[in-house]
Amino acid sequence: MKIAVIGFGAAAIGLLEKLKDTEHEVHVFEKSKDIYSSSISGIRADGKLFVSTEMGGEIYIDPHLQKRFVDYYINFTDNKEVETGNSFASEVYYKKFYEKGFLPITSQFYHIGTDQLKEVLYNIYDQFSKSKNIHFHFSVEVAEVNETAQGVIINGDDKFDMAVIAVGRSGHKLINSVINQYPQLIRNNTKVDLGIRYELPNHIVDELNREMYEFKVKYKSRTGYMVRTFCNNPSGYVVTENYGDFTTVNGHAKMREKSNNTNFAILASLVLTEPFNDPIGYGSYIAKLSNLLAGEGKVILQTYSHFKESKRTKNLYRVHPTLDSKNFILGDVNLAFPRRIIESIIDFIENLNTVIPGVANNDNLVYAPEIKFYSNRLNNRISDRLKFIGDCSGATRSIIYATAHGYLMAEAILSANYNSDI
Q1: At 128, phi and psi to the nearest 5?
Q2: What is the pLDDT of residues 281-291, one digit of tens each?
Q3: What distance in Å separates the CA atoms of residue 381 and residue 399, rounded to the nearest whole number?
Q4: Taking 90 as the threshold, does the pLDDT of residue 125 lie above it?
Q5: Domain FAD-dependent protein C-terminal spans what residues (predicted)?
Q6: Distance from C-alpha of 338 to C-alpha of 193, rounded to nearest angstrom
Q7: Cβ neighbours of residue 152 under 8 Å, at least 6 residues apart?
Q8: For the chain, what is the radius of gyration of the CA atoms?
Q9: Per-residue pLDDT for 49 more than 60?
């Protein structure tokens, strides 16, 4: 069978790992000009891997398979160097957070680091390139996918027996194009996470960082919104992410180069109801409004006390931002965010301060916007010829889950189980 794989990211890596050296002819289309410039966001942004049944996606992935792919990525580093942590393995910490109303999320973390990721990606690509049945096509942006009785047509020209779309959340334009043709693919489309990137000195959370590396908790705020932490980066750096027509904030950490600060996201989860059906549009609007206030390509930076008091920040004090000054403006997030989101985040931080004193210090830093989009949850049972894997399918939200999703799809293809609900 001749198979087109659109996008080369975590999900495609899992798919190719199972399909390599089989009788299937596999063609991988990647819009980046080469492997060095490819944007595999979850992998390239930080390289944080985890094993957990409590987060990472909407499907169940066996923990043994998760650990197998953690080891897979680590084995492609040059020196097998990795930072580890075990979130809430300690009963003492679990009870401490639980007593204050938090829901601790248990998981095992493995951090490769941004500075090792280029070699990991190249080494994986190099291995696949040696498989006779896998063919890479860089600088090819797939804008059109059409299913016919005879097969799947890519960009109105190339014909394949099957197309597996693995473009991640950044490939929403292609996904929207396919959905416009086949609206029956959508299972649901209601969620978006809005929030901030929070930065504070290492010494406030040193004990927690040493114990877990990354702590993940959820909290039902007094507004009714569920608020969660995401992507904790000990001794890390705040960065911006460019989505083309708007800019958001994110964070990462390196294996060898360290800062004096820790940063993590605090996100309020919105589940929107009918007749609303465009959570990505809503989140994008908030991001664009924030950018309008900050200036093109910039985000807003504010101290926590001013964030609480709805005052514009004009000066910083003890905490020095790790984000380059050309990428932010001192301002007031309250001018861009809905008040209910602001109140939910404040409630979360104040309650977290009862567990970790110093988290609510006045001069800690608030960056905005940080937004996590959920792709439409797509139904892989609709078509035998057109499949979706990884984050673009709405089934996963992490490197390991996306990789495993691709692998499981390849298993279904090899067994000719095209109606599998993966």
Answers
A1: -65, -35
A2: 888 899 999 99
A3: 23
A4: yes
A5: 212-370
A6: 13
A7: 4, 145, 146, 159, 160, 161, 162, 163, 385, 386
A8: 21
A9: yes
Give the closest residue to 198 by CA, choosing from 296, 340, 302, 324: 302
Distance CA(331)–CA(367), nearest Å, equals 10
Neighbours of 34 (CB within 10 A): 12
Q: With cut-offs at 50, 70 and 90, classify the pLDDT of residue 258.
A: very high
Contacts 24+ apart (CB under 8 A), 156-159: 158/4, 158/27, 159/2
How long, in residues, is the chain? Answer: 422
Whether the per-residue pLDDT at 325 is higher than 70: the answer is yes
Query: pLDDT-based confidence at 42, cuts 50/70/90?
Result: very low
Beta-bridge partner residues of 102: 219
Residue type, 150: Q
For residue 193, how far is the Cα from the chain centroid?
A: 11
Q: CB of 189 within 8 A of CB of 395?
A: no
On whether the CB atoms of residues 104 and 93 are closer than 8 A, the answer is yes
Give the per-residue pLDDT at 46. Answer: 64
H helix intervals, 184-338: 202-212, 279-294, 304-309
Rounded Cα gap, residues 67 and 50, in angstroms: 8
- Contact predicate 39/167, CB 8 Å: no
Furthest CA-CA distance within the chain: 66
Highest-scoring range by mean pLDDT, 125-139, 145-159, 201-215: 125-139
Domain coordinates in residue numbering, the chain: 2-77+112-188+376-414, 191-373
pTM of the model: 0.82
Fold assignment, 2-77+112-188+376-414: FAD/NAD(P)-binding domain (3.50.50)
Q: How far apart are CA 332 and CA 89, in angstroms?
A: 38
3-state secondary structure 272-284: CCCCCCCHHHHHH
How does 246-264 read in b/e, with b if 16+ C-beta sit within 10 Å?
Answer: bbbbbbbbbbeeebebbbb
d(CA 281, CA 299): 19
- The helix-helix angle for 399-414 and 63-75 (nearest 10°) equals 110
- Least confident window among 47-61, 137-151, 290-304: 47-61
Q: Residue 43's pLDDT is what?
A: 46
Q: What is the pLDDT of residue 45?
A: 58
Q: What is the mean pLDDT of residues 147-170?
A: 92
- Under DSSP, the state recorded for 374 is P
